[in-house]
Amino acid sequence: MNATVYVIQDNVQYQLAVDPAGDMLTALQRSSRLTIPAPCGGAGTCGKCVVRVVEGDVPEANTMDKRLLSSARIAAGARLACRLTPTDGMKIEIPNGHGAPLSKATLSVGSLHHDPHWVKRTVTLPAPSIDDQTPDLERVLEVSGCTMHRLTVDTLRSLSTVVRRDAYQVTVLCSQDRYGNFLHAVEPGDTTGTLRGVAVDIGTTTVAVYLIDLLSGRAIDVHSELNRQAELGADVITRISYSTKHGVDPLRKRIVEQINRMISTVTGRNGIAVSDLYLAAVAGNTTMLHFFLGLDAAAIGVSPFIPAVTRAMTYRAAELGISANLAAVVTTLPCISAYVGADVVAAIVASRMRESSDVSLLVDVGTNGEIVLGNSDWLITCSTAAGPAFEGAQVRFGVGGVDGAVNSFAFTGETGWTSDRITYTTINSAEASGICGAGLLDVVATLLKTGVIDETGRLLPDNELPDSVPAEIRERCHLFEGSPAFLVVPGEQTRDREPIYLTEKDVREIQLAKAAIAAGVDTLADEAGIQVTDIARVYLAGGFGSFMSAGSALTVGLIPLPNGSRTEALGNAAGIGTAMSLTSRTLFERCNSVATAAHHVELSGSSGFREAYVNRMTFSTL
Ligand code: FES
């Protein structure tokens, strides 16, 4: 018999019927209304699935709880959901749901290149007569100038009624490509005032949906949320292994449901009907697109890393379960390889790096670090397993780009203009809940500059700190769980009233991630026969790239920024590039040509990469 459990999130109480033989995490994940992070997929190693038992029997803390949670939290009722057995009447509280880490302010797609895929035209058909018995479809094709059609059977079934509803005046949706002129839909009367679409970027961590007016080529709105697949695994590999055990369908359903809810949110708040959406372009890394299409991604996870498909694919929205007009089609953008996906292709198009003969570097630092080097003549790419450190996983107080994440940290030094020489900011100015990638980078850069972290990455204990370490920094150098750590935010300023530390192990994670990225850049430069100093421009893509301080990236050596190179944060370049491809046939074709032209370098077999990785392990810059 099921147990009844009460769950509070975002100040709302939910009642769940759960299997008492299972664990609380699985029960919470089954509910589409609740969100809980579980980067390790329930393995009991990440410590992020914390819930607080507020009523009912509070079970004894088990070994995992004791290893990953402080005694103060345990005393307050905190337990790991993946190790918690539900009991009847238990009431638990889970941290607030995943907010939207991107705001409307990130809608910086500007005026999009407008060269539409589909156009709408109003036409009046000649009325049939006994002397003109041309069938309705032929009549529409002739007047619309289309030679072929891609009508759904539903459109065909209603055609006879539609053409007669408004005295033979209809609106036709047509497209033109190298294969001819196609008729896609026929609507009664004049509907030429509405033609919209959505560009979707499925990131491993964040999903963004852009609402686009296809008539003007203008972005109307954007909505983003954390990818709900994260509850089944933080990174691509964990999710692939989940799919090999449970099938791909739970992952496909989760992302399709999430996209549909996001479409409903973004259309609803702009007073637009979902049936006004005719086109969707979807980007994401290769694995995310496999999950979106419901493809088996197992072969991506093991050498020789073979995707089922990398080319652009187009299907009816209804076939994929995406909410839109019945005639709508969805196109997934092309990928380059198993680990350089359509999100990178879209970012390349958004950066316009293909339009200059100067060599540019594009880096998207996420769970994987994707790196692109090239210009108008050539393009070379690789992907490094940078680890999920910059996404907040495997870092003691790490969080993703959520409200309250510390996203910048600075020590102003002697020349500071404020009496608070240590300053930090959090996403949406919420009380600090953890540190995200950009904050981690700033803290590590500060500690390198002040001498608290040495070149080998050692966080020095109090008694080894050089005299030059400023007093404000020195007094934050504590021991945490027996090892040297740096106090980033004191407990009285945090949401949970627990201090937020950077631990020695966290520094090691950052060190490994930055070495992988920097060595990837070295390897590509070597393959291309250029010096890193030949790079004229650096583009930082991804949410992390937009928050990240270029100065901290240089101090830490994350990206070996050459002197004099221009650095530009592109924001959500993948989303912007996807929106560009949705409004422009030319830019969609450019996505295809980027995917075809790019030469992919597989780093797992590269001895040059291994050597560069070792060389880049220390915290010394160019
Ligand atoms: S520790 Fe519970 S999901 Fe990671």
Note down, in words, how this protein is organized.
The chain is of the alpha/beta class. The chain folds into five domains: 3-93, Beta-grasp domain (Ubiquitin-like (UB roll)), CATH 3.10.20; 118-188, Ubiquitin-like (UB roll), CATH 3.10.20; 196-332, Nucleotidyltransferase, domain 5; 342-388 and 509-615, Nucleotidyltransferase, domain 5, CATH 3.30.420.40; 391-503, no CATH class. The chain is 29% helix and 25% strand. The strands form six sheets. A six-stranded mixed β-sheet has the order 12-11-10-13-15-14, sandwiched between helices. The protein has a six-stranded mixed β-sheet with strand order 26-25-16-17-18-27, sandwiched between helices. Helix 10 crosses helix 16 (573-583) and helix 16 crosses helix 17 (585-597). The chain binds FE2/S2 (inorganic) cluster.
Element layout with pairings:
Blueprint lengths: L2 E7 L2 E7 L5 H7 L19 E6 L7 H6 L2 H5 L2 E3 L10 E3 L24 E7 L11 H9 L3 E2 L3 H13 L3 E9 L2 E9 L7 E7 L3 E8 L4 E9 L9 H11 L2 H20 L8 E8 L1 H8 L19 E4 H4 L8 E4 L9 H10 L8 E6 L3 E6 L4 E6 L20 E7 L10 E5 L7 E2 L1 H14 L20 H4 L2 E4 L2 E7 L10 E4 H25 L8 E5 H6 L2 H7 L9 E6 L1 H11 L1 H13 L1 E2 L6 H9 L7
Parallel strand pairs: 1-5, 7-9, 10-13, 13-15, 16-25, 18-27, 19-21, 25-26
Antiparallel strand pairs: 1-2, 3-4, 3-5, 6-8, 8-9, 10-11, 11-12, 14-15, 16-17, 17-18, 19-20, 22-23, 23-24
Summarize the structure.
This protein is of the alpha/beta class and 622 residues long. The site of FE2/S2 (inorganic) cluster has 13 residues, from loops.
What are the key terms here?
622 residues, Ubiquitin-like (UB roll), Nucleotidyltransferase, domain 5, 6-stranded mixed β-sheet, 25% strand, binds FE2/S2 (inorganic) cluster
